[in-house]
Amino acid sequence: MGMINVAQLRENLATGRATRPQSEPGRRPLSDLARRRGTLAAVSAALFGIQLDFFALNLALPGISHTFSAGAQAAQWTLSGYMLSLGALFIVGGRLGDILGRRSALLAGCALFTGTVIGAALAPSLAVLVAFRVLQGAGAGLIFPVGIAVVSNAVPADGRAKALGLTFALANVGTALGPFVGGALVQGPGWRWIFWTLVPVSGSALVLTLRFVPQSRDEIAPRQVDVPGAAIIAAGIAAISAGVDRANVAGWTSASTVGLLVAGVVCLAVFPARERRARYPLIDLSLFRNLPFDLVTFLGAVSNVSYAVTIFLVSLDVQTVRGLTPLQAGVLFLAPAALVALSGPIGARLQPRFRPTLVMALAGMVSGLAMLWLTSVTAWWAYVSAFALCGFGLGLGWTFANIATQEVVDPDRAGEASGVVLTILVTIGGIGLAAAATTVQALTHAGYTNGSAYEITLRLCAFLSLGASVVVMVIRQLLVRRGLMKPLSMAADIAAARVAGPGR
Q: Which of 158, 190, 214 is the last residue in one of the domains?
């Protein structure tokens, strides 16, 4: 690599433009448009595979238990182990990409994910399968935050929201299609084919990354990692995730659950103190003094909780109460899949016109009302319509959380911001899902039928979504009156950008 033009670098940082990558020796130069399209394809394929993998495997647990003659709790570790490593590495993975190179980190994540998918498909025992799933989660923990940062830095500022919206549209299709694909494969050739199906997807992401993704990094940051800080935050997230997972088995008041949760909270409490003293901190703590970032992250966490709980409860309801097979249940998810996919491009179109908090609050209200509708219908056409509307609102909230937070931070720290947001969203989502499972269990023990327990829990989640949206809008208006935030209308910003011209 040649010498860095410092003046050009500073101009690019100020304007939000990515430095044009140098062509590699012996390779035909790519046009900017071709490189951007290839980058979007690489990241979209990688995120699609991650989402498809997790939601498809949910329906495979009985088959895994049968194959290895194991209990349901043991088989559950194929999901729990994956989530533990995934959540623990988001922040670390995002910052590693920023300081060591996002292309390198994305390549490492794609290679690890592809290799462990093959290993999981060939696993001769449950222990080996769980081990590969833990490593697979580590690969996904690199791919997700780094992939978002790659897109943010490969696309000019004026097209970033559209690019991220398209990327999440394709990733969200994997989320919604997961149950359909999982149900079809479990009832057909077997659960191992879930992993074999992922091989060409993750393999194509690896090849596309090699060909198209440019190298980018935070050029100002030292090439050193706060290893103790990384260990503390990873241990804290892993302990909390394990404690929440354990609560569904041993109970929330058991010694093992309480011990893990306390250990996790202690690590999270120690982490800020460590970062303040660290020479090269893993996270810039001033990020949490960014009010738009905080509000968007909060609404994103609520949206992710609602999304996880809705998918979980609907999957149970249509199979245990309404009598659908796994394949039929998967077909039902095609309706929300379409609207979840549309939420990405729609979110990108809304982003330049409205403040993120307004869009996300409205999305929360739409999804909350749709969840209430879902609990009160019996006809299939109405059930599918309500479920599809839920998918749109919740998909828009999840997508906009990732798009908006990239818009309110410096592109050089895009991986760090993405890692922080994803860690919060996934961790809170896991806690919310565990709380929903506990609520269902408590209601059934109190004499409610399964159907009634699912409906009551979903209504509680709907009120959470509606209440969070109202509270955030009230807080935001108070901050606007005090001059601490900009008004909801972006007309003034748009006019200023037009006056400033394309060089702004």
A: 214
